[in-house]
Amino acid sequence: MPCVRHQRRYWLWMVAIVWAGQVGLVGRGQEPCTEAGTGTGAAGTSVAPLHEAIDLIIERQLGSRGITPAELASDAEFLRRVYLDLTGSIPTLGDARAFLADASPVKRLLLIDRLLASPEFSRHMARVFDVMLMERRPAARIPQAEWEEYLRASFAAGKPWDVLVREILAADGGEGTPRPAARFYLDREVEPNLLTRDVGRLFLGRDLACAQCHDHPLVNSFHQADYHGLKAFLVRSGLFEGADKRAYVLDKPEGEVSYKSAFVKDDAEHTTRPHLPGEPEIQEPAIEKGQEYVVAPADGVRPIPRYSRRMQLAERLPRAENEPFCRNFANRVWTLVMGRGLVHPLDMHHQENPAAYPEVLELLARSAVELRFDLRALLRELLQTRAYQRSSAWAAEADRPPPEAFAVALLRPLSAEQFALAVMQATGFTDSQRLALGASLNEQTLYERLAGQIPAFVALYGGPPGHPDGDFQATLEQTLFLANGEPVRSWLTPQPGNLAERLLRAADAKALADELYLSVLSRPPEAEEVSAVEAYLAGREADRPAAVRELIWALIASAEFRFNH
Description:
Number of helices: 26
């Protein structure tokens, strides 16, 4: 099982903490410290777990700015947050009650480990990285289900991020590579300019689109030469329709990149061999004429060249020595659970847009390498930080700090998929499906029962195809869907095992309020909320089912439910 090695603490080379309060990283040429029990590292530096090192950096800098961070989140707030972040849904009523009643001082870490090891985690990561990598593009060439299963199986097996990226960039849809991995290319029609931009954005954190015709007008380090050096890896690739009517990536042995700057009058034409941004052009082998192909072109046969520039990209980009790749991975994993990147926007890594905490980003990037790009291991450390576990409530008299301070938890709208699964769990539709499955219940069979309900939410709450999901914007269509549309209305109708049916069996209004709030908001009701429920139900015995339906709807339509906080 991939989670076994994630149980141990990961200890890393950290900082020299000077009495003045400055925090700096050790030199790049020095070796990382070994695991727990080593005491101190070279030059007498203290060794700390990664999560403690992150908190130390952030809290020292907050202190220097006169900011006292928010208190830690309550158990209920943490419970809901970590479930949404690691499984994409909210906890069941039983899980909520068990966690809140647990008096163990390490119950948060035990919960983190349990959720990281769960099949729901792998399923959720497949959805998250599908949206990140494909940005809700239609599945025209590779079926969506095959792509999602490829991602799910990869995360379930603990496949490192660099290995996954290498597979995706090397995939051509044919034998020797997982066919679903080729969706990244095929559903972009293997278009070199689109791929150049998206490879730069998604894997290197650099949106070089504005450097296609000239050096970027606003970012000094985004050069036209870098755009075309990256494009040179992809310019020899295209789309091939096989005799089996399936699409493949076609690689050719020829095709060069030339460009001129639109900003420079009478600029001479430049040519470039492939190179990653900021790196020198790669040296390419000389191949004798007539020896260019391993599989020669023929009718209905996909040719395979002896040398593929695209394969060079797959080998050279996802490397521990490629600092932009490592920083981008670290920044995106941070964003996954913190709601905002250390570098924001995510695809604008450059000197004029420094990280909110540069030391944290460098530490995370180096830790990602040390942990061999293990997503679970990096998440395990981030979820233990006080930065992650802070409350979203700001009780101080001072103005709420800016989001980039990470002094208080950020409010994050649920993704379309999270919202769908959370509504199904809150209304008890998921529980009713568990009951119906009986002895055949497992994560796979349950998800198959739920998956058909998700597209309706994606259509209303998801971002436009080809673009990252943007900022939260409520629409009239969303309100009408939640208020009057199917399937939500049917989930509010009493069915065996669902919330409405359970609430109708509650002994009294107080018991009803307790089950309602724990099921929907993952917390017990406050005293005034119990009183409000009692008052609402008073005198409504004749239309009790309607009253229960309205109470459930009021909570799932609330801002508290719609956001991760």
